Amino acid sequence: MVVRQLSPGSDGRPAATRPHRVAVLITDGFIPFELGIPHRIFGIARTPDAHEPLYDVVTCTTREPRAVSSDSDVKVLVEHGPEALETADTVVVPAVREHGPAFTSGVTEPDMMEALGRIRPGTRIVSICTGALQLAGAGLLDGRTATTHWSYTELMRRLHPRVRVNPDVLYVDDGDILTSAGVAAGIDLCLHLLRRDHGAAIAHDVARRTVVPPHRDGGQAQYIERPVPDADGPGTAATRAWAMERLHEPITLAGMAGHAAMSVRTFTRRFREETGESPGQWLVRRRVDLARGLLEDTDLSVERIAVRCGFGTAQSLRAHMQTTLGVTPTQYRRTFRIPA
């Protein structure tokens, strides 16, 4: 990829010699961790020969330069206002604490809207975690595929039906707009941008110096906690709870419908309405969840875990985990194994 460069600025340097300008846009309630990610990842990237900075990273706010409050007891004195967005090649919108119209009505606040309106056409826009809700509220994600923290994906779907929300991935690269999942997934996305801009060697060098993996296996689906259905709940909840106790056994659609005292057709329709999945999809996910727990908490072999989860064979378990989580059982255990 050819990285877009700034036009000549007040320093008189031609565009070809200027580092790629990254503007990190924050407002009150920003989360300090997410603010630090682009500064760290882009800020230490250097050319392999002359060790010159590849990026110029600045922080700006939605209004005049001022002290901006975080979600904790930290304030940051920001020296740039929204005018910095007018000369940016990449704009990063980090997460903010969970309040305001972006989280309640799906509307981005006026000062953020005005700031985003200053971005030049063709500028790359990136969100970290719930920053995607700010972009969605501004209409920037309409008709696009995007992601955010897994605990907000359903909210994003509800508030922004025109956005194609992918809840399972660590980040989505949609060309000029990129979104990342929760918190540390912002690191994955920034490293991806380094690879896209300058190749794997630069990205790997930054990852080594930051002491993070240059690429993580799988997506955020492997980090999602899934609730256990209430056996006394309405509709198909009792049947789902019944099935959860028998995941090691063969479970058929007809058997589930019979337990719910419904026809297969009615049961399937009600099930999808309540869970958003078909009974077969739901069963696979629950069996994968059971396998996740056994991989984390026990030393059982993959073969024995496959039997206990109803997959029958290690090959079947590997295939379903790869499809559902993007990782193999061995990769998952290596990441999440709880020491004895």
Question: Overview of this structure, please?
Answer:
With about 350 residues, this protein is of the alpha/beta class. Helices cover about 40% and strands about 10% of the residues. It is built from 14 helices and 10 strands. The chain has helices at about 30-45, 100-105, 110-115, 130-135, 155-160, 185-200, 200-210, 235-245, 255-260, 265-275, 280-295, 300-310, 315-325, 330-335; strands at about 20-25, 55-60, 65-70, 75-80, 90-95, 125, 145, 165, 170-175, 175-180. The strands form 3 sheets. Strands 2-1-5-6-10-9 form a 6-stranded mixed sheet, sandwiched between helices. Strands 3-4 form a two-stranded antiparallel ribbon. A hairpin with a 3-residue loop joins β9 (about 170-175) and β10 (about 175-180). It is globular and about 65 Å long. Keywords: Transcription, Transcription regulation. This is Helix-turn-helix domain-containing protein. InterPro entries: Class_I_gatase-like, DJ-1/PfpI, Homeodomain-like_sf, HTH_AraC, INH-QAR.
